[in-house]
What we know:
Blueprint: H1 4-10, E1 24-25, E2 40-41, E3 43-44, E4 53-56, E5 60-67, E6 72-79, E7 85-87, E8 92-102, E9 107-113, H2 115-119, E10 122-124, E11 129-130, E12 135-144, E13 150-152, E14 157-165, H3 174-177
Parallel strand pairs: 1-3
Antiparallel strand pairs: 2-8, 4-14, 5-6, 5-8, 7-13, 8-12, 9-11, 9-14, 10-12
Amino acid sequence: MLNDKDITEACHSTAGIPELINPFVDLIPGTKDVKQRGLISPFNFNLLQPHSYDCTLESIVKLAMYNPDNDTAYWLEESCDKADLILQPRAFALASTREYFNLPQDIVGFVQGKSSIGRNGLQIENAGLIDAGFDGSITLELYNMAPWPIKLRAGMPICQIHFTKVEAPLYKNYSKTGHYNGQRGPTEAVYTL
């Protein structure tokens, strides 16, 4: 697992290595050579944790809706940019990170909810692997497990990403074969059940 120093170093330009966070806003005192590599965009040093990076909520959220009268499932797109969006108990939604990721072929990421968010009853991310070679924002599956409503605000820390180096070469390249590569904003499933 990459630590904060590894994540920071992965954000500085190195010849031949894809960018991890872009733009990397280096707030470490005394560091003058700041280059953009593009692993996470935008990168905020204050969201860097000892072994992970906290991601923030994008303003668009898609609420899962169902009309029993005509047996229709659909997504209702809402914004939490100017006002809180209330996620009711047992409600499901798709959201997205504000951050955009560009993982090189030797780094994978794992998404998980933040403990404070989970302790309030909000479950984050059911499918937490970010493949090496992925390029895009992270779609988050949100579920309110609490018996009370939960407020969502654009820009709030919503999840954390852990990065791990891949030791062996890959046979498949997600940047060429991935269903969700290049996604921006909350992205619905490519197939439905």
